[in-house]
Structure formats: C-alpha cells, structure tokens
Specification:
The chain is of the alpha+beta class. Helix content is 45%, strand content 14%.
Length: 592
C-alpha cells in the first residue's frame, strides 16, 4: 500500500516536471572535469567554495566491490584517490582498491560511449578513456576522496544530463538490481514484469534525523534468511517491478527533500502528500494562523462526526513517519485517510487544546512543537523551557494524536503534573496539554472536552480547590501588590496534591487581607469575597475539601486555577474598559 501511494505521487510529480530521471538524485558537485573537444585533455574546475547541487546518477551500493556511477562520482572512482588518514601512508590494499574503482568507472564510460558511436560527446569520452588521459590525471592538492567530480564537455554540456546517458545508466542499474531471470506479478502496479531483487535506491543520508552518524538507509531490506518469510531474503516475498521500485523511492526522496511536505523531529521525519492537490493542512500544526484555525473549526462545526465528514471529498491524504535503525529505515507511522476526515481531526485538535485569554478576550492556539516543549523542564533563570528536556518521542506522539484524533499518550499527564510541581510554573501551553490529557474520548464527537474557560457548573473537588487557590492568591495580590513571595510560590505544589490543610490555613490567613481590602478597595473586596464564597459553597457539604487529590483531580486543580485567573483577568479588563469609557464620555461632555 505504501509503495503504491508513493508511485501515485511519482506520477503527479513527473507530470509537473519535479521527478528526477530514474536512478538520479540530488548530489553536491565539488569539481568539474572539463574535456576538450576531442577528449585528448581535461582540466579541473573547483566548486569547493560554492558546491553546485544537481540531480546525478545514483543507486545504492554496498559490499566488498561497490560499483561506480556514470559520469558523476567521487574522486575515489574517477582518480583512484583512496581515503587517507592524516600523516599516515596509503596502504597498498587501499591503493589497489582505488585502481579497481577507477578501472570500473572507465569501463562504465566506455560502455555508454559504445552505445552512441556517432555522438560527438561519446567520441570525446571514448578518446578520453582509451588514450589514457583519464588514468594520467593527478588529483589537485585540495581535493578529497569524497569530493564529487562531474564530467563536462568543452561546450559546458553536463554529460550526465544527456538522454543517452540517462538511458544507459538506468539499464546498468536494472542489470545489477533485478533478480536473476526473475519475472512475475508486481504487487504495486499489478502487472507482469521484471522483478527487483533489492530496492535500487536508498534514502539519502541526513534525510532521516538521527542522534548518531547519518547514513543512507534502505526502506525495504531483508538480507538475512532469519528476517524473511520462509527464510527467503531480499524481495522474494515482496515482488516489486523495476519501474515501481525506482519511482517509489524517487518520490520518497523528493518528499524528504521538500520544505513544504515534510516535518523533521529530533529522531524522525514525517512526509505527507495528497492524491490531488489541496491547501496546506499539515503546516497549520506548526504555524496555526487565526485564519487557518478558523477554517478548520468551521469545518468541524459543520461536520462534527468524522465518519460523515469524510464523505464530502473523495481526495485522500497520506502521511509517513520514518525513523532510522543503522542503515534501515523504520516506518514509525502510516496514515491513509480522506482529506475531509483529516480536516475534522485537525479542527478537533485545536478545539480540544485552545486556552482562553481573559485579558484580551481571545482564544490561544499553540504550535505542536511548543506543546511538546512545554512538557520539558522550565528554566526560571533563562525564562524558557530547557531545550531537549521534553520526554523522548512525545512530539511524534502528539503529532499522531493530532492527525488521527487518538488520545494523547497516557504517560503525558503524570509527567506533566510532576513538572508543574517541581517547576511551580503554569502557562497556557501547559494548560492546553492538560485539556488534551483530560479528554476522555477524543474520537467520539459527542464526548466533550474539558471546558476551555471557567466552568461554574464543574463541581469536581480538584477543580474547585484550584479555583479557590486562585481567588486566595488574587486576594493577597490585591491587598499586598508589592509582595515578593506569593502563596502560589510557596504552597502551589502542596495545594494541588493535598489541598485540605493548605486551603483551610490560607483561608484563615486571607481574613486580614480582606479586612484591608474592605477598608481600602471596597470594589475589589466585594468581587473577591463573592468569588471565594461561590467556590466554597459548591463543595459537597458532607465531603468538604479532600485531603488528597487523585492524578486526574490534580490536573483539574491546575485547570480550575488557571481558568479562574483568566476569568479574573477578563473582569479586570472589562472594568478598566468601562472606567476608561466613562472618563472619555465625561471629558467629551465637559468639552461640549
């Protein structure tokens, strides 16, 4: 299924002129080897300061005698330049291997030249090889064995771009990668054809992020009998024809190189595409603009049921997440869903995590990377989250939850609460994570998420304790605006786990603050006293304030605390606006 979807994308990319030729992929060229008109001499042109990137012949090579590439290869093959450790002589075995590689490179040039005897470029290359010009070339001092060298004709024609070279290179790869006399039914296209023994192209080094050394990786690799079904190695049990195998990998590498169709994490990468062109949905997860989120929420409200939404548009959306294990790519996740179902899932993602900003009377939506970062350690001195401190793999798990409407990982809630207790830091991204973690069933559109703003009907003891703690803190702020250590700084962690003793003690201590407010700020005293009384009277008269809170109740404590604060900010903003408007009206009346 995956290879089938990739070949479908390859057909679209080819029609748009974006797909490279078979068995070509981007390479960085550090040197040009320019032939004269008849091939009797050649000169080096250095591009090391500013290497040129171009699509060039490529096929995965391994083993004890790796074969050369046609026209564009490293100095190891073009000039027999061996890898050398600084200050150490070149071992004879390495020198011998370098000569073997150069000879193989020369043979490949001649094989192409012999297929086009009347081509002047082929004639020049044939002379270049048969007269010994190639073998007499000396590497420039600054050249390294890993530098890529491209053959260029005297009129600046890049020889690897010639149609005859493309055909010869494809034929060479097919002869090496196809199974011996293997023919059969391809599982991808469903047609009879010559089958591959191995996938001819690998995933380019660096395309999949890894904490270790980057290297080329194979998407399908079965090189030991223990790995294959019935002891069969390579692609015996996965019949893929040469055309489908090459096009699928070309499409995958094209997606991995794209800035608009991929998302890189610390140790994985996700690529996505659609069967038909569509507006960029995926980008909204990391850059949630107001307009983009509004469109998704509108779509969610019009079609809240995911199964209903998918019937609107037959277009399909695909997302592939890859990791790396040595030289093998690991498929971490695969998504194949209708586009409108994805719109529903993304709309639900933003609806389920949004946070109300009381001061500005708006909702806030957060990039996925920022939500993952908020699960890390808060560095109070730097006033930011410590890089790399979030749980490993959490960003990928959140991405999966966003795309599939699955719940967030169960490990998130206890980890996040531990961070909040340790850091004593609560901010909107952490509140957003709590809303997601507390949602009991994100897949069912009839099951609502925790409220995104203050919910007076919520009678959960943890939620009520959080509201009370926020009001008590507001009372302290109002009475002592210059206080250095608030009750939040001192008691928040204890209050969110064992609230009974803390809240009762703080309630008694708040009497002195209320007395001061009644004397100095009657309006604040009235508002805060009313809020405090409303929260206390909501408790069950028989149970009262609990001594200990469960994990879920602790999360609701934090939610109640932050939503009460947001409601208080909204009330302050409204009061300030009314006061400013009254002053403005009075000034206008006086001037009139």
């Amino acid at each position: 299924m995956l290879l089938h979807r990739l070949t479908g994308y390859a057909a679209r990319a080819e029609a748009d002129g974006e797909l490279p030729p078979p068995y070509y992929r981007p390479k960085r060229i550090q040197w040009i080897l320019q032939l004269n008109e008849d091939g009797t001499s050649a000169d080096f042109v250095s591009l090391r300061e500013k290497p040129l990137e171009t699509t060039a012949p490529y096929a995965y090579r391994s083993g004890t005698m790796p074969p050369p590439y046609l026209m564009v290869d490293t100095a190891q093959y073009v000039l027999a330049l061996p890898k050398q450790s600084p200050g150490k002589p070149v071992p004879e075995r390495a020198a011998e291997e370098g000569r073997r590689r150069r000879d193989a490179y020369a043979d490949l040039l001649l094989a192409w030249a012999n297929t086009a005897p009347d081509d002047p470029y082929a004639t020049a290359v044939r002379t270049f090889v048969t007269t010994g010009v190639l073998h007499r070339l000396k590497a420039p001092q600054e050249m390294t064995a890993a530098d890529n060298i491209a053959l260029v004709a005297n009129d600046n024609t890049w020889l690897h771009r010639l149609p005859s070279v493309r055909e010869a290179w494809a034929a060479s790869v097919r002869s090496r990668k196809s199974g011996k006399n293997a023919a059969g039914l391809c599982l991808v296209c469903g047609k009879e054809g010559e089958l591959l023994s191995t996938i001819p192209e690998s995933i380019k080094s660096g395309a999949i992020p890894t904490v270790g050394r980057g290297r080329d990786a194979q998407l399908v690799s079965i090189n030991a009998s223990a790995q294959g079904r019935g002891g069969a190695a390579q692609l015996v049990n996965t019949p893929v024809c040469e055309r489908c195998g090459g096009r699928a990998m070309a499409a995958l590498n094209l997606l991995l190189a794209s800035d608009t169709n991929r998302r890189r994490a610390t140790d994985s990468v996700t690529v996505w595409w659609t069967r038909e062109p569509v507006d960029d949905l995926f980008d909204t997860l990391d850059t949630p603009t107001d307009a983009a989120v509004a469109r998704l929420l509108t779509s969610l409200h019009e079609h809240p049921d995911p199964s209903t939404a998918e019937r609107i548009d037959p277009n399909a959306y695909y997302a592939l997440t890859l990791g790396l294990n040595n030289a093998r790519a690991v498929v971490l996740d695969w998504l194949d869903i209708p586009v409108e179902r994805l719109r529903n899932h993304l709309g639900a993602w933003f609806a389920h995590h949004r946070v109300y900003d009381g001061w500005n009377h708006t909702y806030r939506y957060f990039p996925l990377w920022r939500l993952a970062l908020a699960a890390g350690r808060w560095d109070a001195k730097a006033n930011k989250y410590a890089p790399g401190s979030a749980p490993k793999g959490l960003e990928q798990e959140l991405l999966h939850a966003a795309l599939t409407r699955d719940p967030v990982p169960a490990r998130l809630l206890p980890h996040l609460l531990q961070r909040i207790r340790a850091d004593r830091h609560v901010d909107p991204p952490r509140v957003a994570l709590l809303r997601l973690a507390l949602h009991s069933n994100r897949k069912d559109h009839q099951v609502t998420a925790p409220a995104d703003r203050l919910d007076p009907t919520q009678l959960d003891p943890g939620y009520l304790c959080g509201r009370i703690f926020a009001v008590l803190e507001a009372i302290q702020y109002a009475a002592l605006p210059d206080v250095k250590a608030t009750i939040g700084d001192r008691f928040f962690g204890t209050a969110m786990t064992a609230p009974a003793a803390v809240i009762k003690t703080l309630r008694l201590g708040a009497n002195a603050h209320l007395k001061r407010l009644r004397r100095d700020n009657k309006a604040a005293y009235t508002a805060l006293s009313r809020r405090l009384a409303e929260a206390f009277t909501a408790f069950d008269p028989h149970d009262g304030i609990p001594s200990l809170l469960t994990t879920e109740q602790q999360a609701k404590f934090v939610l109640g605390y932050e939503q009460q604060r947001a409601a208080d900010f909204a009330a302050k903003a409204a009061h300030k606006k009314n006061k400013d408007q009254a002053a403005h009206d009075a000034a206008v009346a006086k001037a009139g």
